[in-house]
Specification:
CATH superfamily of the largest domain: Response regulator
Domain Response regulatory: 2-116
CATH topology of the largest domain: Rossmann fold
Domain OmpR/PhoB-type: 124-222
Structural class: alpha/beta
Oligomer: single chain
Protein name: Two component transcriptional regulator cell cycle CtrA
CATH class of the largest domain: Alpha Beta
Helix content: 40-55%
Shape: globular
Number of helices: 9
DNA-binding region: 124-222
Radius of gyration: 21 Å
Organism: Acidomonas methanolica NBRC 104435
């Protein structure tokens, strides 16, 4: 999961970034509300965490303008403002959740996972595609109950494919998800990650769930793509 953190308090931001990364989340940070809006227009995030008191414009304004621009990224407000009016205003403008400081780390992570599930129409923290099951909480993939040992980047790619299963994702989408526009490697690295991911899934018996759409990108299909049998294999099957 890739998070955009919008907070002008650099000390608080540094601490929160460490917490989020320790929990396996990729984080980009900006102290500017205006810059946050520009970033949200050009890059896709799984969620945005925003403080309402920013140096340039109010967090309320960021939420309102994001929704007016039809940016549907889930927004979690994390703020020192605890009065009910602040919460009501944030929800009215389009925030998805609201948490006040000081906060419990486990609750923050749980709330992020919950709004991620809701944004993708999921009722539970698991995604099942054929023999493949992805546990969003444990950040683990299993095939027929058997764990698939993936690197962080491989899991991030698989999670993104699963959350948007049935949709073709471009290599640019993967690069943005993995690196967020910062120190991005060459695009061919995505082919390498996909190749390794496919091999590991196939070794566990998941077939060809991750398939290539030539000239466009990759897709996680609901069912494995079956390869056509050769004439010799077909005759052998009939005679068996």
């Amino acid at each position: 999961m890739r998070i955009l953190l919008v907070d002008s308090d650099h000390t608080a931001s540094a601490s929160l970034i460490q917490i989020l990364r320790t929990n396996g989340l990729a984080v980009d940070h900006t102290a500017s509300g205006r810059e946050a809006l520009e970033i949200m227009r050009h890059y896709q995030y799984d969620a945005v965490i925003i403080e309402l008191t920013l140096d340039d414009i109010e967090g309320y304004t960021v939420i309102r303008d994001a929704r007016l621009a039809r940016i549907s990224t889930p927004i979690l407000v994390l703020t020192n403002l605890s009065r009910p009016q602040a919460k009501i205003k944030a929800f009215a403008l389009g925030a998805d959740d609201y948490l006040t400081r000081p906060f419990d780390t486990a609750e923050l992570i749980a709330r992020l996972q919950a709004i991620l599930r809701r944004s993708h129409g999921l009722s539970a923290a698991q995604i099942v595609v054929g023999p493949l099951m992805i546990d969003l909480n444990a950040k683990q993939a299993l095939v027929n109950g058997d764990p698939v040992h993936l690197t962080g980047k491989e899991y991030a790619i698989l999670e993104l494919l699963a959350l948007r299963r049935g949709s073709v994702l471009t290599k640019d989408a993967f690069l943005n998800h993995l690196y967020g526009g910062i120190d991005e490697p060459e695009m061919k690295i995505i082919d390498v990650f996909i190749c390794k991911l496919r091999r590991k899934l196939q070794q566990k018996g998941a077939g060809s769930l991750v398939t290539t759409v030539w000239g466009r990108g990759y897709i996680l299909r609901e069912e494995p793509v079956m390869t056509k049998a050769t004439p010799h294999q077909a005759m052998s099957s009939l005679s068996a």
